[in-house]
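Hey, can you fold this one?
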Amino acid sequence: MLYNRKIVIIGAGHVGTHCAAALSFQNICDEIVFIDKDEVKAKSQAMDLADSVCFLPSAPIIRTGDYRDCEDADIIVISAGVPRLPGQTRLDTLGASIECIKDVVDNLNKTDIKGIIITITNPADIIAYYVRKHTGLPKNRVFGTGTSLDTARTRRTVADLCKVDPHSVIGFAMGEHGDSSMVPFSHLTINGDAYDKFVKEHGDRCIDFSEEKVTECTHMRGMDIINGKGSTEFGIGAALADMAKAVLTNEHRVLPASVLLEGEYGQNNVNAGVPCIIGRNGIEEIIELKLTEEENKLFASSCDVIREHIKLEEKTK
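Sure. Predicted structure:
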């Protein structure tokens, strides 16, 4: 690892540029480099963002570059791909996204990558699996944002339903970054109490709370945003910046990420969103929560959905 606080973002569309904005506004890195097939667009995005950071106390260098910049980058963010359209699931974008990612991986394999690769492109878990497999890098250095955004949506939903601050809600969404994700409610706390205890003791403020409502809102929030404005961008940008900060500042912090499972939770040869300790070397440890029997079934079912689409991608070569 180089620790230059340099981040390369491959893909200068909505998601990539919002990742760069979140990184810049939080002063997480010293240099951001955009790589995109549309060089004119990438340069324009870099110029626009560079203007905005002039108003900050401390501003990173923001520019365009090429794949040679990946060699001394601490983190390479892959956000290239196709946007999800209204009515589509993330899994519906698989074919077009893989075609795009193949070109990215081919170029990455021509460089000597010393840093961490974090993938965002949907379908998130299948793309994370593909990039790790085809770059040949160890799983601690290639992983996806996974259920980090789903987790934020879970916490936001619980906070809204129980009229508390989202920071007072601790829990995770796990499995697919998508419609089969699950919430292990046995590990959900509100204000330090088990969620069911809190709901029981504060029934007047949790009238609309139910596990079904939380799960439904976790699944549907992204589609509601896409239906309303055509894309999601702010949430995932902040999620990526948070994960990058954990790496660059060596936080050893527990965050959900899509990482290759090799026996954890009884699953093998599949990337799925699970809580992990993240630091300078990437994934330092996968945290295995003790799930209930029903939660294990839900998580296994979500992994099966991911695994089926990994097989589908492999058959279309």
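The mean pLDDT is 93. Let me know if you want another pass with a different chain boundary.
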